[in-house]
Amino acid sequence: MNKNILIITPKLHISGGVASYWNSLLPRLKKNKKFNITTFQVGGNGKNPFAMINEQLKFRKEVNNSSLVFLNPSLGFNSFFRDGFFAKQLISKNIPFVVFFHGWNLHFEKKVTEKYQNFFLNSFAKAKKIFVLSKDFKLKLEEWGYKGEIIIETTNVDSGLIENFNFEEKLEDINSTKTFKILFLARMIKEKGIFETIEAFNKLANNYNIELFIAGDGEDLDEVKKISKNNSKIHVLGRVEGKEKIDLFTKCHIYAFPTFYGEGLPTSILEAMAFGMPVITTNMGGLKEFFRNEEMGYLIEPNNVIALTNSLESLIKDKNKISNFSKFNFNYANEKLLNTVVAERIYIEIEKVINVK
Q1: What value does the mean pLDDT take over residues 170-180?
Q2: Total domain count for the chain?
Q3: Exposure pattern of 59-94 as b/e (b: 16+ CB <10 Å)?
Q4: Domain containing residue 49
């Protein structure tokens, strides 16, 4: 008889890193008929004060026939407690579960250490195994007392994004272009480094043939438009999806993402790599462990406009360097980061838990 796997996800129609992760992975996992995989979608309830209680009640009914439950919290107040109470329900029903911590809020990490460590020990710490995106996160879980297996995983790239992408044409474009196109694609909040990107770009724009493409929406989009409106070399596009997003990754040469946000492992960086783009980013969260400085591009300190400017200039002045980073990233992404590859790794780990007697 097939085993029933229940995966707890955010509402999959709502944009976000965890939703994108599972939208990409679920079709691949479901191709293997050994398990029956279903989802229980949570969140997206606005300020409804009864939402968490309702979700707990619905979850109680949903899990009864489950052989394994896959929790996907972020380390933040709401998600930590919602999924922690899910874990407590599973413990009471003797249903095995695994956990994948995606986002990781460093301020809330301190709260767990100071106030909520016992809650962690009586909920998430009972998981058969825990997935994280960084060695630092792994060490923190061990510090809090988790004794099980911790696996450092990555986010993933939907292989459908690059199915029509021609990498050889990308290399030809890099070698022949007279205008380098820099891309910033992220949620438009200051913590993602958008204003540092614009400042670094402006320092270089008078000396080099470059353009900056800014994509994404968020609370700081209007300010970005305001400070860029008289600059013909800066293109503020707002949110992009589908073919428009693919075209943007295809035509741009350098991906800049100098975040100082509490990142896990941003999918946009992996997508840029899959499209053969050198990346300039910061040593935040999972990036510190994942990113290979001077192979994938440049890893810099956050809030450092000078380092960002110098890194951009280093690439703009050297097409061979861009080409070398581009080749490394394209090959690395295809070998290790596509949803087909990540799904197989996740499937193997699920199978190990299910088959444990």
Answers
A1: 96
A2: 2
A3: beebbeebbbbbbbbbbbeebbebbbbbbbbbeeee
A4: 3-156+338-354
